[in-house]
Design goal:
Trafficking protein particle complex subunit 8; TPR-like_helical_dom_sf; single chain; elongated; 25% helix; 60 strands; 14-stranded mixed beta sheet; Ig_TPPC8_2nd; 8-stranded mixed beta sheet
């Protein structure tokens, strides 16, 4: 990158900060601004001052170039070569870059400079390129490389300070008298000019111009126009002047070498006058567009500045001298014109009307003139003055001899010069010493000047002549600095003392400002930026806005360039500077300063500061009629939170926002502009391609993360039979804020694309949106150029994409609204949603004429999920892709519309037949349709009585990719139930409608049940042939629908299995079935439920008979019944081990009851059993988790149901028929409980007894145990009553065993015995009495019971019977 000289504060530069700044643009290299070092500022300002007095003929000749003689010479008063000066001691000193200051005798330059001129010139210096600097904390800031406006202001300010009595630096050393070569009496005219000067010097010693000595330098100039007089005439006049006045004091200047004014002046010559620089030229007051509008050149003196009072500020205290800057700082304040006699008019200066007759040779002649004047006139005169003053000072060192030269006064009189009670006479040695020091300083003899200043400083301090002391202290510090002696430190305390005296004692703020400016230059040159910043800030006040703004800006740059940099202090002071710039009318500078400060305040959470900066910048841009910038700033302002702002301030921001954009619309001929209100929450947008018309609340939570794409991959693997590693595209139809949109959404030509985005109003004022539509860009497949409705030139936009218009939306505070917009692509290609366009109007409580309706737009960008896979992702903020704003448009495809007459509610286990309608509204046929449900066993297409070739024609898919988190935070697999749709001819043609029967069974879980249905279908024209090995990908689509159905209570079923027993030579279990009718009163058809048959699905068992005597099996609402069932193990099952395969071919289906027995093995009833099975890979058969008991029931009407319950091991019940808790299924085979020492044991009990509990509270059930020993050896029978598992000693049972049951007996070989006992019960009901146990072992032998009984315990005997209450029973 191109580099240039780096700025220090950007007004001054030192080597300390070299290489800190980099140029932002190449234009910065071409800037004319440059850094001005203090070694250049100070000697150029404190240079010898010479008056220029010219005759009217001379003014006329020079005026042809739209210049005065002073203006003609001023740019060339700095010598390009070194000259030599001899000090009073006779030592020669080289004066490099020596310069003089020329001032018009007729015009006081301080009267030319006023506040209006300063404001205009400072305002004109705004085009300074910025540079960037990166700080150690990584923050990068932009700031101007230089501040030429501060240089201009400094130049004008220091030259606006008039000459005063306590210093001689601005007093004139001499006068140049100029006449023309065309005058008739040149010597007489010269004498008249000399007399005029002499009279003024002696008659008005305190008026401008003031001279240093009575015998001032006189130099005579003859101006010659080559086209008005011959060279011979000019030489003749010059000879006369040299003979009368001396050859060393006369010079001939030839100008106007160009004959015509028709040609434009040379730009290189014009830059001498109009180029940037720190040296004041009178022409600065005549620039076009600045200062007073009428400028004349006259021969009379201007009004004395002491008499001019029009420029004072109201309420300001009288100062000892009138200053041109002591007036109102308002840019439009009236400026008193310079009072002059009638003379020739000079035009305001611009690059086209100045120096039109001058050539490069004329410029060279002017430089020769200045050099001759310095060498032959000025320097010899200065040497004489130095010798005279040195002799005077040497001869008058004793102050006691000249004490009478001073007059002492008690206090200042009102209106007199403040700060001192001493007035020195002109011949006082202190003033002579000061005059000598000033001469030394002006002629760059800084060491001698320092000695003089330092010597006289003590005298002024002892005399308490504070104005003299302050001036000498100031010059003492500058003299020491200009010596450039590294062994001597810059005496900043001298300058600080001088500034304090100027401000506090002398009441001379202009001199304090001058001292501050030079002091800061010296401090910055030495790298003391913090001290320089403090010096600048000290001179700011509340009344001088322009001065304070410039000083605050320089202080800010000092903080920025300090080591270490104070960035926050820089931001604070640059913002203060911008505020003061604004008060002084410098809108451009104020805007620039605010922008610089905003770089630090932006994004730091300082809302009030950001609001103030943005509003100020926008308001200033509006006043500058920069509507584009103003609109951008107000857009950014209204992006800030507005909740904490008062309603009045909100309304102010909003009204000005509408004004700005309305003016921009007029400027851009009613083209819509980019605006930032209302707030479109684009990260929460939803792209809906489903055409289901669902609400935003439902769609915004659809397809979380990559759930749909994982499911889609499983679909393809299941249907195609091939493994799918990754998806190249997706048919997902809903893309929500919680979805991973890493694949581009797919749509079809002619299908509407729905885009929903929330929008909110952050203001208290209601906003009205009108005529809202999406902005898009479309890239057709057959074209290379994109088409957009965002450009007025796109006349064929509606031919490729149809855009729907939303009429209006009203946005109130705190009420978010959803903007639902649609577009329809009419050609294949890629569609990009770029934004939204709308009309906006604010409904203010009180309407005004500025309540405009503006047309605006907002552009959309979305960020995908933050990535955290790699180390780079974790250490940086990296977002993944999000394609919600992009849609790939494919050619015509089949499109399915599905309708399902789903009821609003259904009972638990209820079976219904629904009407399932499919309609192909696309342009192509569809085939290979599948209905996929996430609730296996809920739907089926089968019909009763139709057998299937396998257990399940299409089993449930369980894949690890379908894992989801349940309510407990556990990861569970989400099963998918694939059901082939049995359409006619295996396809649905375009426009065809198919109506099918779809069976549904109500889920067992109560409350509102939400579920999703998917329909997979393919385009048969793009399906790969089954007879080939083509790897062509099928063109498929997936229709997704969500529905809700309320599950109403019906019946609750539980089944418990008793321990093993021997019954009729078959191994059998008893099953106790509990059925409760828990339906509600609103379900009239379920007042009474009939169980018409019961089925069991098992690997080992089949139903044998009912144990209960009730044959009706009716359950009324609120009632419960218990049914005892007996099962037996098939003989084939007895030969299998417990670890035999659990495949579907080994399942046993058995039923008992009335109509419909045996239908469980057929669809749809078999499909409803899918939740009871465990499904693995497709090559494996489904496994039954637990034996299932299935109940088929009917209500009063046409309601039918199928309810199933797993058969659990028996648990004890405290009382009645209470709900039981499921326990893990025992893995022990019933055969494993058979003893190795067998016996025949039979428990005899009546299944039912009748008893009148009103007559007797206890009923006794007689029971007997028959034991037979078939073994060839005796055996011991041990009986005992023990506490059942799960019960404590405090548990009270509803029954009691009566008899000798805790006993032992010996049973001989082939002997039979009977053991009677009774069971007492106190209430009717079905009883299962547990606790009776037995053990049979070989007699008279010590045998390990663990080997005798594999369980290691007694074998339990359960007694089951029913007790009925009969009131009349005897």
């Amino acid at each position: 990158m191109t580099r240039r000289r780096p700025p220090a504060a950007p007004q001054s530069v030192t080597p300390v900060i070299t290489n800190y700044w980099q140029v932002r643009s190449a234009a910065a290299v071409m800037t004319k601004s440059r850094t001005i070092a203090p070694q250049e500022w100070i000697p150029d300002y404190f240079s010898p001052v010479i008056s220029v007095l010219s005759s009217p003929d001379c003014d006329r000749l020079v005026g042809k170039n739209n210049l005065t003689l002073t203006e003609l010479l001023q740019p060339f008063t700095k010598l390009l070569t070194e000259v030599t000066l001899k000090d009073p001691e006779g030592h020669n000193h080289g004066l490099p870059a020596f310069s003089v200051t020329l001032q018009d005798f007729k015009k006081d330059p301080t009267r030319l400079i006023n506040q209006k001129l300063m404001l205009d010139l400072v305002d004109g210096c705004t085009d300074e390129p910025s540079v960037t600097r990166t700080f150690p904390n990584g923050q990068t800031l932009e700031a101007p490389g230089f501040t030429p406006w501060f240089d201009v202001w400094t130049k004008l300010f220091v030259h606006s300070i008039p000459a005063v009595e306590h210093e001689y630096l601005r007093h004139h050393l001499g006068c140049v008298f100029a006449i023309s070569s065309t005058c008739e009496a040149p010597l007489g005219q010269i004498q008249a000019l000399v007399d005029q000067q002499y009279k003024h010097q002696h008659d008005k010693p305190h008026a401008y111009p003031q001279f240093t000595a009575p015998q001032s330098l006189k130099y005579y100039l003859l101006v010659h126009d080559v086209y008005e007089a011959t060279e011979a005439q000019a030489q003749a006049v010059l000879v006369q002047m040299q003979e009368a006045l001396g050859s060393a004091n006369c010079h001939l200047l030839q100008i106007n070498s160009r004959k015509t004014q028709r040609e434009a002046p040379n730009p290189a010559l014009v830059d001498y006058w109009l180029g940037p620089g720190h040296r004041f030229c009178n022409i600065d007051a005549r620039r076009e567009g600045v200062g007073p509008t009428i400028i004349t050149t006259g021969v009379t003196m201007p009004v004395d500045p002491m008499e001019e009072k029009a420029g004072r500020e109201e309420g300001e205290k009288a100062e000892p001298m009138a200053h041109p800057l002591a007036q109102s700082e308002k840019p439009d304040s009236p400026i008193p014109p310079v009072v002059t006699a009638p003379a020739s008019q000079l035009k305001p200066v611009n690059t086209g009307n100045i120096a039109q007759l001058l050539t490069s040779n004329d410029i060279d002649r002017i430089r020769i003139l200045v050099r001759e004047f310095c060498i032959k006139g000025l320097i010899p005169h200065a040497e004489r003055q130095m010798r005279q003053l040195s002799e005077i000072v040497t001869n008058r060192k004793s102050r006691s001899l000249f004490s009478g030269a001073k007059r002492w006064f008690g206090q200042n009189k009102p209106g007199t010069t403040g700060g001192t009670s001493v007035v020195y006479s002109k011949e006082a040695p202190e003033l002579q010493m000061r005059k000598l020091g000033d001469l030394y300083f002006m002629f760059k003899l800084y060491k001698q000047a320092y000695n003089c200043y330092h010597s006289v400083k003590k005298d002024f301090q002892s005399d308490e002549a504070w104005n003299y002391y302050a001036g000498v202290a100031e010059m003492c510090a500058l003299s020491q600095f200009m010596q450039n002696d590294p062994t001597k430190k810059y005496p900043s305390h001298y300058m600080e003392d001088s500034i304090n005296k100027y401000l506090q004692v002398c009441q001379m703020p202009e001199f304090a400002v001058r001292a501050t400016l030079f002091d800061a230059l010296c401090l910055k040159f030495q790298g003391l930026f913090l001290e320089a910043a403090g010096s600048y800030i000290r001179l700011t006040n509340e009344t001088k806005d322009l001065r304070s703004s410039l000083l605050l800006e320089q202080a800010a740059y000092c903080y920025l360039l300090a080591s270490p940099p104070s960035i926050r202090k820089y931001a604070f002071h640059i913002i203060l500077s911008g505020y003061r710039f604004s008060k002084s009318g410098q809108k451009r500078h104020s805007s620039r300063a605010y922008r610089q400060g905003f770089q630090i305040y932006q994004g730091q959470g300082w809302g009030l500061s950001e609001d103030h900066i943005l509003y100020t910048l926008g308001h200033q841009s509006l006043l500058l009629k920069d509507y584009v910038t103003a609109s951008q700033l107000f857009n950014q302002l209204l992006l800030m939170p507005q909740d904490y702002l008062p309603s009045l301030q909100q309304m102010c921001h909003l009204r000005e926002f509408f004004i700005v954009h309305h003016m921009k619309e007029k400027e851009t001929k009613h083209q819509s502009a980019e605006i930032t209100i209302p707030k479109f929450q684009i990260q929460d947008c939803v792209l809906d391609l489903s055409q289901a018309g669902e609400t935003y609340d439902r769609l915004s939570e659809a397809n979380p993360k990559d759930s749909f794409q994982r499911m889609e991959r499983v679909f393809l693997e299941r249907i195609s039979g091939h493994e799918v590693m990754f998806l190249a595209r997706t048919c997902q139809s809903v893309f929500s804020p919680v979805s991973y949109v890493n694949l581009v959404p797919q749509s079809v030509v002619g299908e509407p694309i729905r885009f929903m985005v929330p929008v909110s109003n952050p203001f208290l004022t209601t906003l009205l949106l009108k005529k809202i539509h999406l902005l898009w860009r479309f890239s057709p497949d057959d074209q290379s150029e994109s088409i957009s409705n965002d450009k007025s030139s796109s006349s064929n936009a509606e031919d490729v994409v149809k855009t729907e218009l939303l009429d209006s939306i009203t946005l109130e505070k705190g009420k978010p609204c959803i903007v639902d917009l649609k577009v329809t692509a009419l050609q294949p290609g890629d569609l990009y949603i770029t934004g939204v366009e709308y009309g906006l109007k604010a409904q203010f409580p009180q309407s005004e004429a500025t309540d405009y309706i503006i047309r605006g737009r907002q552009y959309f960008t979305v960020k995908g999920p933050r990535l955290s896979l790699t180390k780079e992702h974790k250490t940086k903020v990296v977002y993944g892709p999000d394609h919600r704003l992009q849609v790939a448009i494919r050619p015509g495809q089949p499109r399915l519309e599905m309708s399902l007459d789903l009821p609003k509610s259904i009972h638990q286990g209820e079976i219904r037949i629904l009407k399932f309608t499919l309609k192909n509204t696309g342009l192509e046929p569809m085939a290979n349709l599948y209905l996929v449900s996430q609730n296996p066993g809920m739907f089926s297409f089968g019909k009763a009585g139709k057998a299937q070739s396998s257990l399940f024609e299409c089993p449930v898919i369980q894949d690890s990719a379908l894992k989801v988190l349940n309510d407990n935070g556990q990861s569970v697999e989400q099963p998918l139930d694939f059901l082939p749709v049995p359409v006619k001819k295996s396809r649905v043609e375009a426009g065809q409608v198919e109506t099918l029967e779809l069976w549904i069974r109500g889920p067992d879980n109560l409350a509102l049940h939400s579920f999703k249905l998917f329909v997979y279908y393919e385009n048969p024209k793009h399906m790969p042939s089954p007879n080939t090995k083509s790897k062509a990908k099928a063109v498929y689509r997936i229709l997704r629908r969500e529905a809700e159905i309320k599950i109403l209570p019906a019946i609750v079923v539980s089944a418990e299995k008793n321990p093993v027993c021997m019954f009729e030579s078959q191994t059998s279990d008893s099953i106790l079935l509990h059925v409760s009718n828990i339906s509600k009163d609103l379900s009239r058809n379920l007042d009474q439920i009939q169980i018409h048959h019961i089925s069991i699905v098992s690997h080992d068992y089949e139903l044998l008979e009912f144990q209960s005597l009730s044959e009706d099996r009716f359950v009324k609402r609120g009632d419960s019944i218990s049914i005892g069932l007996k099962t037996a193990i098939k003989s084939s099952s007895l030969q299998k081990s417990s670890s035999a395969s659990g495949g579907s071919k080994d399942l046993l289906f058995s039923s008992m009851g009335g109509k419909g027995a045996g239908r469980l093995q057929h669809a749809p009833y078999l499909d409803f059993l899918k939740p009871a099975f465990q499904f693995g890979p497709t090559v494996q058969a489904p496994k039954l988790d637990e034996d299932q008991l299935v109940i088929f029931w009917e209500g009063n009407g046409q309601i039918q149901g199928q309810t199933m319950a797993p058969i659990k091991p028996m648990k004890l019940i405290e009382s009645g028929l209470e709900d039981h808790v499921d326990s893990p299924r025992s893995t022990t085979s019933p055969l494993s409980m058979r003893s190795k020492y067998p016996c025949e044991l039979k428990l005899e009990v009546e299944p039912r007894i009748e008893h009148s509990f009103q007559k007797s509270p206890l009923a006794m059930m007689p029971c007997r145990i028959r034991i037979h020993n078939p073994n060839p050896y005796p055996g011991d029978l041990h009986l005992q009553l023990s506490q059942a598992n799960g019960l404590t000693s405090d548990t009270r049972l509803p029954y009691s065993f009566v008899g000798c049951l805790n006993s032992s007996m010996t049973v001989d070989t082939h002997e039979s015995k009977v053991i009677p006992f009774k069971i007492a019960v106190s209430s009717p009901g079905l009883y299962q009495c547990v606790g009776l146990q037995f053990q049979f072992i070989q007699a008279n032998q010590v045998i390990d019971r663990a080997k005798t009984n594999p369980l290691g315990k007694f074998v339990p005997l359960d007694v089951i019977f029913t007790t009925l209450n009969v009131p009349n029973s005897g």
